[in-house]
């Protein structure tokens, strides 16, 4: 079950690179990118990424969106992101099927309503929604023409209709999941090949699965309470990788959860049946 036993303070941003067939993920508070048995240190918090081509990633940080060359370890900032606000940082981000990249920001200490949701597309960074507290759960279903976003402390997930030509949101969003009557904080998410919504749930030691209509279908448990971000991967895209955290844990909590902060990999199963993901789309730069 343990894919990598590095104990991240806040593991996040799991990305299966479909060309390299490799997992990349972040330790936000450690300012590190992990993957392929390597670690890349950054000068600031980094949280999520998409892939541009075999050797380049599109990385979100507290000050901008970056083109990172893995071969030469070079970084070029493509666009600034709330650079003037030192009290915020990037959080969940993901590429959409049109070549855009969605990214959420949040207060560095999780302050209420300090965050926002943006999309970078065709050279333009546009703010889509504010205020938010902890934007999360970004994923996209081109076949159904929708995208998803959650706000973790509000325990809600929304769904947007997307323009079929450009991927920009159109019309009013709709509430997809309301989990406010329970302990499950919807964190990172991904979709499988049937459009089912897989949600890592902060504080709940699980990744839960919901139908495209929002019905609970099942869960996969993990030995860490702060499950943060799932990603389908492996040669058949039928394995589920999950990052976790140990943010703000006391020494007693760290001892009680010796696997907190590690990255896991399990067979992607739902009610005894193997599940398959879909390849992450590439980010397109102008």
Mean pLDDT: 98
CATH homologous superfamily (4th level) name: TolB, C-terminal domain
List the strand order in the largest sheet. Answer: 1-24-23-22
- Radius of gyration equals 17 Å
CATH top-level class: Mainly Beta
Sheet/helix structural class: mainly beta
Distance between the termini: 40 Å
> What string gives the helices and strands in order?
EEEEEEEEEEEEEEEEEEEEEEEHEEE
Low-confidence stretches: none
Q: Helix count?
A: 1
Residue fraction in strands: over 45%
Structural domain count: 1
The CATH level-2 architecture is identified as 6 Propeller
The major pleated sheet works out as: 4 strands, antiparallel
According to CATH, the fold-level topology is: Neuraminidase
Number of strands: 26
Helix content: under 10%
Protein name: SMP-30/gluconolactonase/LRE family protein
Organism: Falsirhodobacter algicola
Active site: 187 (proton donor/acceptor)
Keywords: Metal-binding, Plasmid, Zinc
């Amino acid at each position: 079950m343990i894919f990598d036993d590095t104990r991240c303070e806040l593991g996040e941003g799991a990305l299966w690179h479909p060309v390299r067939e490799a997992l990349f993920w972040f330790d936000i508070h450690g300012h590190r990118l992990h993957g392929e048995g390597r670690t890349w240190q950054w000068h600031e918090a980094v949280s999520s990424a998409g892939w541009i081509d075999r050797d380049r990633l599109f990385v979100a940080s507290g000050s901008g969106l970056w083109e990172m060359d893995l071969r030469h370890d070079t970084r070029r900032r493509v666009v600034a992101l709330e650079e003037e606000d030192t009290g915020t940082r990037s959080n969940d981000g993901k590429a959409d099927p049109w070549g855009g990249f969605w990214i959420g920001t949040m207060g560095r200490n999780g302050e209420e309503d300090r965050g926002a949701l943006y999309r970078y597309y065709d050279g333009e960074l546009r703010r889509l929604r504010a205020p938010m507290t902890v934007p999360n759960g970004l994923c996209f279903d081109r076949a159904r023409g929708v995208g998803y976003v959650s706000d973790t402390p509000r325990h809600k997930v929304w769904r947007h209709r997307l323009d079929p030509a450009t991927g920009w949101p159109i019309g009013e969003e709709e509430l997809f999941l309301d989990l406010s009557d329970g302990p499950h904080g919807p964190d990172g998410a991904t979709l499988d090949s049937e459009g089912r919504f897989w949600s890592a749930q902060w504080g709940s030691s699980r990744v839960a699965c919901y139908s495209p209509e929002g019905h609970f279908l099942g869960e996969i448990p993990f030995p860490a309470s702060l499950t943060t971000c799932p990603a389908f991967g492996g040669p058949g895209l039928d394995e589920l990788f999950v990052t976790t955290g140990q943010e703000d844990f006391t020494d007693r909590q760290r001892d009680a959860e010796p696997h907190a902060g590690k990255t896991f990999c399990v067979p992607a199963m739902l009610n005894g049946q193997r599940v398959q993901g879909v390849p992450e789309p590439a980010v397109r730069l102008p």
